[in-house]
UniProtKB/TrEMBL annotation:
Region (Disordered): 334-355
Designated name of the protein: Aldehyde dehydrogenase (NADP(+))
InterPro entries xrefs: Ald_DH/histidinol_DH, Ald_DH_C, Ald_DH_N, Aldehyde_DH_dom, Aldehyde_DH_Superfamily, ALDH_KGSADH
Residue spans of biased composition, Low complexity class: 334-350
Residue ranges of every copy of the Aldehyde dehydrogenase domain listed in the record: 15-447
Key words, A-Z: Oxidoreductase
Keyword Oxidoreductase included in the entry's annotation: yes
Gene Ontology molecular functions: oxidoreductase activity, acting on the aldehyde or oxo group of donors, NAD or NADP as acceptor
Length: 512
């Protein structure tokens, strides 16, 4: 069996195909990762950082080939993919800085002493790599959340070899990036498998010590159950579905309706609406200012056609939008569906009279009363799809927000001294991992303070998949009690001065 990419624009099968990985090959690659684990964990931090930076340089050296290959498989376009490759390389160098800085190790020393509880032994604690990690690439980011992406890089930075299960949406891109990385990294530190059965075998392999995943709620839950049902369960870190609420207060709508409407339109259609941070539900006030915001939004997306990543994604999007249009036709007084004219679609689809033909889709906006939100309207829809919930009072907005499931982000647009905005900020932080104020959520910068996670179903964990602390997923704590200096890791010896440490309760910085 082979896996070949499909040109998202034409539907033509790529001439380049990758063989599905057999169960025996999965086992051998996991064993090679296990054999490499001790050496990679012992690699000095400066050397590990240098290798991560060298991977970035190697990817940049073949940028034109990578971008062309990815565009042929995803139709994301050269500008977007050039930017994604730049992000990927920046991320590699950023984690090199994280490794060199060293605070991620949580180095802690308590010398032997007498405490109120009696004598205390010498205790020294730090985080160490968990071992080989399985990473599942995402469909919507062929670079930044795929073979050379954030899960892979944070695991490598932590000192863990990685076996990547490549996504079938871009096999040639995955294979190309994998080959480039293998040329730089030691044997066994990076490897790749392909195919659904290979992914199952990967999670089951006893050498694998943790799993990183970006994808659907259904797929993530199945893999999480698999990881938990092993004879020796392992942690599963999944980034899953997220509807990402976007709330506009009456004061903000009155002051900036056109600006917010246009910005929201660009945000929910960015990348054809195939971002995990896409705002999928917008709370907009009823009345003239809210109408103006809606009209600016619709005017921005009108006439635009979008190519989705795969046939499966496009068919799922078509089914959802068709059903929404059918429901709107039956309940015209409560719900309206606006679908911008798509040159390759049946022009009557917005009225529920037909399904799109061809390979592009239009943006879809479903307008409802906030009081009429249903569980179905609170589910993520992959693609350029937005539910516009109109509210006529702060109480109605408060009740609707109370229905929201967990998510990666929430956005509030408010004015100065806006009491409704302040209340929204307090409420929404209980349901999300990142609150965006007077901005747009589609854009996750890589940095020390970033958090890309959130309550279920945004993720199944308190950890992040973007930012410096992403390494924490692939580390575990170990304490040494009364151990002689020769037994201790270098970072826990008294004379070490290469990373921040907390010694007898006092934080000590290098060279301080």
């Amino acid at each position: 069996m082979t896996v070949a990419g499909i040109d998202a624009r034409t539907g033509e099968r790529s001439a380049v195909s990758c063989a599905e990985t057999t169960a025996n090959d999965v086992a051998s690659r996991c064993e090679a990762a296990a054999q490499a684990a001790a050496g990679w964990a012992r690699t000095g931090r400066a050397e590990r950082a240098r290798l991560l930076a060298d991977v970035a340089t190697a990817l940049e050296g073949r940028a034109a080939e990578i971008v062309a290959t990815a565009d042929a498989e995803t139709a994301l376009g050269e500008p977007r993919l050039t930017g994604e490759l730049a992000r990927t390389c920046f991320q590699l160098r950023f984690f090199a800085e994280v490794v060199c800085e060293g605070s991620y190790l949580e180095l802690t020393i308590d010398h032997a002493d007498v405490s109120p509880m009696g004598p205390r032994p010498d205790l020294r604690r730090m985080l160490v790599p968990v071992g080989p990690v399985a990473v599942f690439g995402a469909s919507n980011f062929p670079l930044a959340f795929s073979v050379p992406g954030g899960d892979t890089v944070s695991a490598l930075a932590a000192g863990c070899p990685v076996v990547v299960k490549a996504h079938e949406a871009h096999p040639a891109t995955s294979a190309l990036c994998h080959d480039i990385m293998r040329e730089v990294l030691p044997d066994g530190v990076i490897s790749m498998v392909m195919g659904r059965e290979a992914g199952i075998a990967l999670v089951r392999d006893p050498h694998i010590r943790a799993v990183g995943f970006t994808g659907s709620v259904g797929g993530g839950r199945a893999l999480a159950d698999l990881a938990a049902s092993r004879p020796e369960p392992i942690p599963f870190y999944g980034e899953l579905g997220s509807v990402n609420a976007f709330a506009v207060t009456p004061a903000a709508a009155a002051a900036r309706s056109g600006e917010i409407g246009r910005g929201l339109a660009e945000s929910f259609t960015l990348g054809a609406g195939q971002f995990c941070t896409k705002p999928g539900l917008a709370f907009v006030p009823a009345g003239a200012h809210g109408d103006a915001l809606r009209d600016a939004l619709l005017g921005t997306v009108k006439g635009r056609a979008f190519t989705l990543l795969t046939d499966m994604i496009r068919e799922a999007y078509t089914d959802v939008t068709y059903q929404a249009a059918e429901q709107a036709a039956e309940q015209a007084a409560e719900q309206a569906v606006e679908q911008a004219a798509d040159p390759a679609a049946d022009p009557a689809v917005g009225q529920g009279a037909g399904r799109p033909a061809g390979r592009t889709v239009a943006a879809t906006v479903v307008e409802v009363e906030a009081a009429g939100l249903t569980p179905e309207l609170l589910e993520e829809v992959f693609g350029p799809y937005l539910v516009l919930a109109r509210y006529d009072s702060a109480a109605q907005l408060r009740a609707a927000v109370g229905m929201l499931p967990g998510a990666l982000t929430a956005t509030v647009h408010a004015e100065a001294d806006d009491e409704i905005g302040a209340e929204l900020a307090r409420t929404l932080t209980a349901r999300v991992g990142r609150l965006v104020w007077n901005g747009y959520p589609t854009g996750v910068s890589v940095g020390w303070a970033q958090h890309h996670g959130g309550p279920w179903p945004g993720t199944d964990t308190v950890f992040t998949s973007v930012g410096a602390t992403a390494v924490r997923r692939f580390l575990r704590p170990v304490a040494w009690q009364s151990a002689p200096s020769g037994v201790l890791p270098e970072e826990l010896r008294d004379e070490y001065d290469g990373a921040p440490r907390r010694v007898d309760g006092v934080l000590q910085l290098p060279n301080s």
